[in-house]
Amino acid sequence: MTKSKNTKQSYLAKIISNATDKQWWLLGVALIVTVLVYAKVIGYNFLYTWDDFDYITDNPDVQSLNFENLGKYFSEFYAGNYQPLTLLLYSIEYLFGNGSAAVFHGVNIFIHIINSYLVFKLIRKLSPQNNFVALFTAAFFAIHPMHIESVAWISEFKDVLYSFFFLRGLILYMNFLQMKEVKMLVSIFIFFLLSCLSKSAAVVFPLVLILFDYYTGRKFTLRVIVEKIPFLIISLIFGVVAMYSQKGAIKELAPVMTIVEQISVISFSFCSYILKIFVPLSLSAYYLYPSEIGHSALPIWYYLSIPLVIGLFIGVGYSIRRNKHLIFGFLFFLINIILVLQIIPVGGASMADRYSYIPSIGLLFVAGIGISHLLTLPKLKQYSKSVVSMIVILFFAFALLANNRTTVWANDEILFTDVIEKYPDCYVAYSIRGLCKNLAGDYQGAISDETKAIELNPQYLKAYNLRAGVKYATGDFKGALTDYEFVLKNGTKDVDGYSNCGALKSALSDFQGALADFNIAISLNPTLADSYFKRSIVYYNMENYPAALNDLNKAIELKPDFKDAIQSRNEIMALLNK
User: Fold this and answer.
1) Which end of the chain has fewer surrounding CB within 10 Å, N or C?
2) SS3 231
3) How many C-beta atoms lie closer than 10 Å to residue 319's C-beta?
């Protein structure tokens, strides 16, 4: 009986002790499995309809690395974000890979693997006597299906990049807490700054440092507060920049909610993140707000999530003196997730898998601590092999889910078809899939999807614009004109809108109407050569050749290498014998 007991204790000790060889071997296996799961992603192309075009495929600034573009990275916003270091590394990847998507995917996967190793190092410093916790947290962080979005999507390179600097800074901070060398704060500050330059989500770093102070039992003295001031200043600066950059983001998609609706949605999203971290099912690239907002009562789960969140906070608060691990892990999750809970709604998605990348570490840490504690309970020691076996099975179950999830990111159409299957009322997904079909030459399919998006949301102007473009390409000028005019009537009165309407009216021989639209377009922006060129065509069709010539001269003045305008001017001058 004693021998059996000692055997069980010995087995348990091997699992959660400091057996160096075993811990590196187990970590290596977890990372190899992760690489195998992600391997197919390297063969995927860019997502041409979802951010990759803004950052890379249609971004000449990234496609040419020079001092002028380098200055743009640090002085301009891209896709509604300020992330100069991310843009710089995109440019380097583009240069060395000659624009190949495989290089971008490969770098994303490589940094994710490094981040998983850094998670192991960080947790081992937090729990130096129990390597099981570090292995558990790092392994499930590496393979977690929710992290597919951050790794498989090229546009989310900023996520893995900022996390690399963020985690490296935290590891150095743990070293600082042990050695107390003030000069180490400089290195920590540099990593924090690099993290902010990669993605604005890093602004919570000073709060995480304070949380580490609490967890390690450091006293909150004046010195501790003063050393955080430079970090807080940088956080404030980048926070303001991030808020300013988001002014141009997709705010028109965010629904107008009552206070009760907003609290319900925030609570539901908060609970959903926690649930999906432990049970990663029904994942989606787009989580639509409930369609009932502003019309009727929300689904009951949204309202029930409010007392659930309150109960969760009360329960965690009750444990403040009993379980520092739980408090730390929960607050780590909360601090890193709070900025993306749509407290200020931006965009049409209520949550996103990619937002769980760093926050998940806190909850996985709590789970690892909890399992480790259960394994040491006298009544459960006899079941330790079974528990460990279940954890291994769970890891490979997560790997299977992750493997299935990576296939969804193969291309735009597959990705948004998956969204539609999970959210049949997601008008944004139909519209983006319609754009995919348009690019693939499936014009009828594109019109069908854009029409479905409009049926689901009659005020979604982007779908009208996209459908108009397809109708124009297929020769349905009247249908295209109707869609463009609807956008002008209900949306922003912009140059493109009037220019599109002018071109269609000209094609339909409504020259007076076309002339009126081009006049408005030019009044809105008199520096666009294309507007003058298109108006010259209207004048030409109206046989007003002098006016056409004047517009062509203006177009060439604004754009000296405008070949079509030069050729047209030569023809008219020959016609006028000039």
Assistant:
1) N
2) helix
3) 14
Q: What per-residue confidence (pLDDT) applies to 249? A: 52
CA atoms within 13 Å, Cβ hemisphere of 101:
19
* pLDDT tier for residue 127 given thresholds of 50, 70 and 90: confident
Complete DSSP assignment for 540-561 = HHTT-HHHHHHHHHHHHHH-TT
Alpha carbon distance 454, 435 (integer Å): 14
- In terms of C-beta distances under 8 Å and separation of at least 24 residues, what long-range contacts does 177-180 make, across chains too? 177/212, 177/213, 177/216, 177/218
573 band by pLDDT with thresholds 50, 70 and 90: confident
- From its phi and psi, is residue 510 left (phi > 0), alpha (psi between -120 and 50) or beta? beta
Other CB atoms within 10 Å distance of the CB of residue 383: 15
Torsion of CA 10, 11, 15, 19, to 10 degrees: 50
Amino acid at 517: D
* Residue 138, both tokens: 């790092």
Q: Is the pTM of this model over 0.85?
A: yes
Q: Is 442 helix (H, G, I), strand (E, B) or coil?
A: coil
Counting Cα atoms < 13 Å in the Cβ hemisphere of 564 gives: 10
Alpha carbon 358 to its chain's center: 13
Locate 147 and state its tokens. 């992290």
- Asked whether the beta carbons of 409 and 44 are under 8 A apart, the reply is yes
What is the SS3 string spanning 452-502?
A: HHHHHCCCCHHHHHHHHHHHHHCCCHHHHHHHHHHHHHHCCCCHHHHHHHH
Please check whether residue 137 is in contact with residue 395, taking contact to mean a CB–CB distance below 8 angstroms: no
Burial of 389 (0-12, 13-18, 19+ CB in 10 A): exposed
**% of the chain surpassing 90 pLDDT:** 63
Q: What contacts 500, CB < 8 A, 6 or more positions away?
A: 468, 472, 480, 484
As a whole number of angstroms, the distance between CA 151 and CA 245 comes to 24
